[in-house]
From TrEMBL:
<comment type="similarity">
    <text>Belongs to the LysR transcriptional regulatory family.</text>
</comment>
<dbReference type="InterPro" id="IPR036388">
    <property type="entry name" value="WH-like_DNA-bd_sf"/>
</dbReference>
<dbReference type="InterPro" id="IPR000847">
    <property type="entry name" value="LysR_HTH_N"/>
</dbReference>
<feature type="domain" description="HTH lysR-type">
    <location>
        <begin position="1"/>
        <end position="58"/>
    </location>
</feature>
<keyword id="KW-0805">Transcription regulation</keyword>
<dbReference type="InterPro" id="IPR005119">
    <property type="entry name" value="LysR_subst-bd"/>
</dbReference>
<dbReference type="Pfam" id="PF03466">
    <property type="entry name" value="LysR_substrate"/>
</dbReference>
<dbReference type="Pfam" id="PF00126">
    <property type="entry name" value="HTH_1"/>
</dbReference>
<dbReference type="InterPro" id="IPR036390">
    <property type="entry name" value="WH_DNA-bd_sf"/>
</dbReference>
<dbReference type="GO" id="GO:0003700">
    <property type="term" value="F:DNA-binding transcription factor activity"/>
</dbReference>
<keyword id="KW-0804">Transcription</keyword>
<keyword id="KW-0238">DNA-binding</keyword>
<dbReference type="GO" id="GO:0000976">
    <property type="term" value="F:transcription cis-regulatory region binding"/>
</dbReference>
<protein>
    <submittedName>
        <fullName>LysR family transcriptional regulator</fullName>
    </submittedName>
</protein>
Amino acid sequence: MDLKWLEDFISLANTGSFSRSAAERNVTQPAFSRRIRALEVWLGTELIDRSTYPTTMTAAGRAFRTTAEEVLTLLGQQRDEFQLERARTRPALRFAALSTITLTFFPRWLRDIESYLGTLTTRLFSGDMHDCVEALSEGHCDFLLSFSHQAVPIMLDPTQFPSVLVGQDRLLPVVAQATDRSGFPGTKEDPVRYMAYSANTYLCRIVEHILKRNPDHQFETCYENSMAEALKAMVLEGHGLAWLPVSSIAQELERKKLVPVGGPAWELSLDIRLYRSANRLPPAAAAVWEHAVLTSRQSAGIG
């Protein structure tokens, strides 16, 4: 018996409609109907009165609904208890972070945390926004470190995944020092050679927001990569322009190897936020969160 069959049955009991429940369960209606039928075969009785509309439960179906709800609740509670116990005994704090934050922000931030809490054992997963959000929502990490901007919200319910501000960065359009900057922001006859973040990455969406604010530009995309460090290497070799976080190019800016173009209208400040699940954290993770909240409040002049 597949656990999904119980979840399907509860959905059908709630909606009274095969089509609505199939959409809710993200399956086709024929597949959904087969799963309900498979549950009935496994139980050896009919649960659904298919002669009525909206769909109603048989007497057996009404009795089994209570059992199905109790089973799902008990299994969910047991799973939560197992995960919490595993968290208590797990020595490493698990972080997920965007690749740029992994290289530029995390090492310094962790050093500051350890100066208050002592040495920590950490495990860091680096990926794109989708993978990082999935890791947090599925319970595969304790924390997510991510850029954040109100124009490009992260799809996490703040009631289920609270966050705290732990840092800031700034995204600048830059070129190599020797690159001609007089043609910015480009013309149809002479477009600016532009190196973009891969589609659907978070920084790609941020740059798209900047470009929407500045529609009078002509760019010719000559290179794409999901990683800021890869774009930085191409910019340093004079291949064109890219938007890069200041945290990743601070030394190059100071040494004039990279030069900003366009002025403040083409730049954007980014928050760096630490996200967690609203579920109870293991002690070491809870200590990190409490310190991050305290530090954020102190930086804001609160408390």
